[in-house]
Specification:
This protein has one domain: Heme oxygenase-like (Heme Oxygenase, Chain A, Up-down Bundle). The protein is 62% helix and 0% strand. It contains nine helices and no strands. Bound molecules: protoporphyrin IX containing FE. Protoporphyrin IX containing FE binds next to α2, α3 and α6.
Length: 220
Amino acid sequence: MINDISAAHPSTAPASAADLSALRLRMRAGSGDRHQRLDVRFEGMHGAETPAVYHRFVAVNEACHAAIEPVLERSRLCDVLLDWQSRNRTALLRRDLDEMAVAPLPRMAFDYDVAGLPEAFGAGYVLEGSRLGARYLHRMMRKRLVEPAFAGVSLLYLASADEPDHFRPFLAQAAHVLTTEASRDRAVAAANAAFDLFLETERISRSVGGAFPADVSQGF
Ligand code: HEM
């Protein structure tokens, strides 16, 4: 696997803006339908009368980060991105849940094989890319904090997406590894597996009784 060999000695030469843009477009095109479906399922979150949908959003993210992050920590991504472990956000998500007295969802398993670097980058793309949406959601949710219904809302996870910019360096390193169509296909397949976990967890979040504060039904 030539890509894996080159990634064991990641290049320090910067990838061109065109490389990054092409890779991002490829990942987005390959997984965008699933992202779109996720967006729809959380529609209205920052415009709703209560934080019920936000509670579910944090719970779904917590369950999925708790499933995916340890798998990626054991992958070769850590050899390539030396600060990978410091990017973990499960603990922040857990604190958000605790602050809002929302029970975590049942533990999920992410059993996609990410032993190959393309797969690890693909799954990592979903977690790292979600920071972009989180920045937007943070701006929107922050405005609601002045309202009594949103008084107890905790935004630690969303706030962590603002700084520093992890996504671009992630993409830059990925561009050194994902140099062939085949490796990009593998990355897209892994990204889709990660998105599928989010979609399935979101589905489960709607049927878990008692996990959310009483007003949750208004958000569905
Ligand atoms: C719940 C789990 C979610 C995951 C895993 C996720 C994942 C991602 C990923 C991978 C990207 C990067 C796409 C790219 O390459 O440009 C992204 C971007 C984005 N997401 Fe999400 N997303 C989630 C939820 C949401 C929700 C609920 C919204 C609601 C509006 C949202 C809004 C956005 C936006 C606006 C961007 C683009 C930001 C930009 O390009 O500057 N996401 N997300």
